[in-house]
Amino acid sequence: MDGILALCHFCETHGPCVILCTQRSKEEPLQTPHTLTVTWCEACQSVDLSQALVSRDNKTTYVTTRTPQQQDLAFLLKQAAVRSLSCEEETSKEGGTLYFGDNERGHVISHTFTLRDSLARGFYRKYSIIMLMKDKIHLLNSWPMLADVINGAEQAQRPQRAVRQAQGSPRNTARSLSQLTGQPAVFGHIHLWFTWMLSCETVIEKPNAGLPLPPFRSPFTLRKFANEWDEVVFQVACFCTVTGYRLEIDDFLVKDAFQVLLPSNFTPFHNAPVCILKNEDRWVVEWGGQLPPRLPTLITVAEKGLKNENLPDAALVPYINGLVLKWLHIAQSIYWSKSNNNSQLLQTLGVQSHDMPLINYWLTQLSLNK
């Protein structure tokens, strides 16, 4: 996984700061990569600027340092730490996981948590674990794994006010993470944990087995029908086409015009009822079915574009082809998930109940043409 993982802390003296970070590297750093000045106290201490924790596998080196090896990346990580621990955070005291970012400053998944400390203000210290990446899609696809793995360190449930009274008032109230957790090697454990997370491949790229649209498929004839035919006749022909019913039309050019609404190589269901279009001075339809109260979104949007006088013919071609390609990709995403009953996935893709006749037919065609 490409990106950088960092542990951040809201220091009572220095404010939000990066304690340490782990990133991939082609080779082990030989010296301090930059001259960045970092102020620190006992609470925000981890590894020295001149030190690094290094792990290696067959191809990659994973390096944990106090600051990133690139100075420009150190600036972006500092900004992310400030946002993570101040303005971009969950409202609950216990913290939580959220996303923020943009293309200029990078995309960030941040998990904030607190550790109890009898010497701190409010009896707790605030930390966050952040992942900074340039690729938003890759980062968000990594969210489930990161959200499941990242958890705040557990501490004993002890009344911190009573602990403070028992300790008195020491001069130095700052305490490091290793002191709070009682683990002297906590930063070594964090390095190994971050290394494991960066070595995980959380995104599996699926090969594009999509069915390409014909390069010269024109919707101009369909536009003529949309404006001249009776609205119900036109909508029945469109509905039967995109949901797998068989169209019987004597005129091949008319039948071919409606194929614009389908990807190539789609064939009707063999046992589906027949929809017959006849030209009797005007076009009429004979079909034993009935149009649903709401048509599939593809038909509604396509009909709107076809009847839009302000949409020129030159723009109509990419309009219709792009619309069909969009719903083909939606159907492919559902097909890859191996479930068309995943309500959360359907909602995310914008699929509603009136779109399901189209989706079910297209999923069948994708399985036949895989």
UniProtKB/TrEMBL annotation:
It comes from the Eukaryota. InterPro entries: FLCN/SMCR8_DENN, FLCN_DENN_C_sf, Folliculin, Folliculin/SMCR8_longin. Residues 44-153 form the UDENN FLCN/SMCR8-type domain. GO terms for biological process: negative regulation of transcription by RNA polymerase II; positive regulation of TORC1 signaling. One of its GO terms (cellular component) is cytosol. GO terms for molecular function: GTPase activator activity. This is UDENN FLCN/SMCR8-type domain-containing protein.
